[in-house]
TrEMBL record:
Its EC number is 3.2.1.15. This is endo-polygalacturonase. It catalyses: (1,4-alpha-D-galacturonosyl)n+m + H2O = (1,4-alpha-D-galacturonosyl)n + (1,4-alpha-D-galacturonosyl)m. One of its GO terms (cellular component) is extracellular region. The lineage of its organism: Eukaryota, Metazoa, Ecdysozoa, Arthropoda, Hexapoda. GO terms for biological process: cell wall organization; pectin catabolic process. Keywords: Cell wall biogenesis/degradation, Disulfide bond, Glycosidase, Hydrolase, Repeat, Signal. Belongs to the glycosyl hydrolase 28 family.
Length: 356
């Protein structure tokens, strides 16, 4: 009986080992896609210049990152990593690092000028999880979350702090577009642009995250093929040494809707420019002209957003088209900077928070 039990244990171990495959280069990854291994372990890969580490066609599989992943240098507008599929598990294992070595592209221009810079990671996933990734020095934007559905992103560390002194720009942490039922939590971003930018999406939660050094947490709607953001919850987050704390910005002359955005228990610390921004005249080059109401901001809930702005900054800025917003609830305590006497467009049910 003992011998039979030992035989079964050995067989189980063999099956477990056989279910995983190690890959050390891009060619091996293409071979792994044709196999039946349920776990693909990426180990110390250097991806050739101008090519993507492409995880498509791997529905139901687990991808583990081990060791250091690096990329050859090329000026191009593709994606260094593509993860696309259903029922996938993406895991960062202890000691791994996905290193974009972004200093090779950084020129203080980001995506606006200068060198062409690739996106770091493109995800188009359903019923999947992305957990524990450690990412350093992205050439520009880090996560593109595009047309995703029912996906959790957790315990992710995006470390672009070198970009503060070496010319990093547009190094967004998480950019969300046309996605539904997304949860991003227990993560850290140190960068030179938005920690989170939601361009469009539904039922999105951003919780227990720390944003440092960048441009804050943004719901930024307008200028895309879908201009709708509904049921957005940003909760229990810290925004540290960013130029902006939190903001909702809609495109000048844009069409769409923002409905049901809640910022709950968000702590601001040492914000340099503006603590809370709600505007309806956004352009990529900066706010301009009188706000337009084609993208109304409805049911905005600012609850326990608190913290300090540096003395040369402004505590709160509101500039939306009168009559376009509705159903706002506001409870904030932002101090240290100047009060803005020119806030306008606040719904009639609410005393102007700029004067608090």
């Amino acid at each position: 009986m003992a011998s039979w039990t030992a035989t079964l244990a050995t067989l189980a171990l063999c099956l477990t080992v056989a279910a995983a495959v190690d890959i050390w280069n891009v060619d091996q990854l293409e071979q792994a896609k044709k196999g039946q291994d349920q776990v693909i372990r990426v180990r110390n890969i250097n991806v050739p210049a101008g090519k993507s580490l492409d995880f498509q066609g791997l529905d139901g599989r687990t991808i583990e990152f081990h060791g250091r992943v690096t990329f050859g240098y090329a000026e191009w507008s593709g994606h260094l990593i593509i993860i696309k599929g259903k029922n996938m598990k993406i895991k960062g294992m202890p000691g791994h690092l996905i290193d974009g070595e972004g200093h090779r592209w950084w020129d203080k221009c980001g995506g606006n000028c200068g060198k062409k810079k690739p996106f770091m990671i493109y995800t188009q996933l359903e019923q999947s999880t992305v957990d524990g990734l450690k990412i350093k020095n992205t050439p520009a934007w880090c996560f593109a979350i595009n047309q995703c559905n029912n996906v959790h992103y957790s315990n992710i560390d995006i470390d672009n702090k070198d970009g503060h002194s070496k010319g990093g720009h547009n190094t967004d942490g998480f950019d969300v577009h046309k996605s539904r039922n997304i949860r991003i939590y227990n993560s850290k971003v140190n960068n030179q642009d938005d920690c989170l930018a939601i361009n469009s999406g539904w039922d999105i939660v951003f919780e227990n995250n720390v944003c440092e050094g960048g441009h804050g947490i943004a719901v930024a709607v307008g200028g895309y093929d879908v201009n709708e953001a509904k049921n957005i919850l940003i909760k229990n987050c810290k925004v540290i040494k960013n130029n902006i704390g939190i903001r909702v910005k809609t495109l000048l002359n844009g069409k769409g809707i923002v409905d049901g955005v809640t910022f709950d228990n968000v702590e601001l610390k040492d914000i340099s420019e503006i603590g809370i921004v709600i505007i309806g005249n956004y352009l990529n080059s900066g706010p301009r002209g009188e706000p337009t109401g084609g993208i109304p901001i409805k049911n905005l809930n600012i609850n326990n957003v608190r913290g300090n702005v540096l003395h040369n900054g402004t505590n709160i800025q509101i500039n939306v088209a009168p009559g376009s917003p509705s159903g706002w609830i506001w409870k904030s305590n932002v101090w240290g900077g100047r009060k803005n006497p020119n806030c306008k467009g606040t719904p009639g049910n609410l005393n102007n928070p700029c004067n608090w």
